[in-house]
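queue> pop job 88
queue> type: inverse folding (structure -> sequence)
queue> payload:
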């Protein structure tokens, strides 16, 4: 059965307003919520871009029922995957196990700000796959972990505050490569555009039976 979520648009509202909005969304009966994780807005006229993870922490305390989710975070350039794992575990604990970690290969709009080169899509998917391994290793919580990968290194890292329930991880898909990655390594599929063929490729790669989240833009006003 379909569930209906509410999107906190970091590009269009201040941090305080986003928290007020999610409280209202919970009161209105939405089944879950997601939040974009951008460094800057799509358009200058939108005028906002607070830090999504601080908003999530506040939202976790201001709400009681509604699930929370990043839609999506890029763990390959602006953030190291070890830092993403720590943030996700903390929000899961603060929210009482209501959090899902949505990940993606990123967009130059937000990731270029740290001054690194922008890799081609194939390399970004390779980096995302390795980042998923780092995050999973830390979520396992089997003591200090080290890893020497092609793109990332982990040196005696450990999440000291693991939540009661492991954080479910979703991967954003847009084509065959990302669908294969999501089907093989993610707990759920994320699609900005609800296209049936993405779900089919996700299922074929091992995603059959797993949840999927898709976004549909809706505009409302009393005056048509």
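queue> result:
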């Amino acid at each position: 059965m379909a569930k209906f979520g509410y999107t906190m648009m970091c590009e269009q509202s201040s941090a305080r307003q986003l928290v007020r909005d999610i409280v209202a969304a919970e009161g209105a009966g939405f089944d879950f919520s997601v939040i974009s994780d951008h460094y800057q807005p799509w358009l200058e006229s939108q005028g906002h871009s607070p830090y999504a993870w601080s908003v999530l922490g506040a939202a976790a305390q201001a709400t009681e029922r509604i699930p929370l989710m990043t839609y999506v975070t890029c763990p390959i350039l602006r953030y190291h995957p070890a830092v993403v794992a720590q943030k996700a575990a903390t929000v899961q604990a603060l929210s009482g196990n209501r959090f899902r970690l949505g990940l993606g290969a990123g967009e130059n709009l937000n990731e270029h700000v740290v001054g690194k080169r922008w890799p081609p899509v194939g390399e970004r998917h390779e980096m995302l796959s390795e980042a998923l391994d780092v995050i999973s290793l830390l979520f396992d919580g089997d003591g200090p972990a080290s890893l020497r990968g092609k793109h990332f290194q982990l040196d005696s890292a450990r999440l000291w505050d693991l939540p009661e329930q492991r954080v479910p991880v979703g991967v954003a898909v847009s084509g065959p490569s990302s669908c294969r990655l999501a089907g093989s390594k993610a707990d759920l599929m994320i699609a900005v555009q609800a296209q049936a063929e993405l779900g089919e490729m996700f299922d074929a790669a091992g995603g059959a039976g797993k949840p999927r989240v898709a976004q549909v833009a809706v505009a409302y006003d009393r005056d048509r």
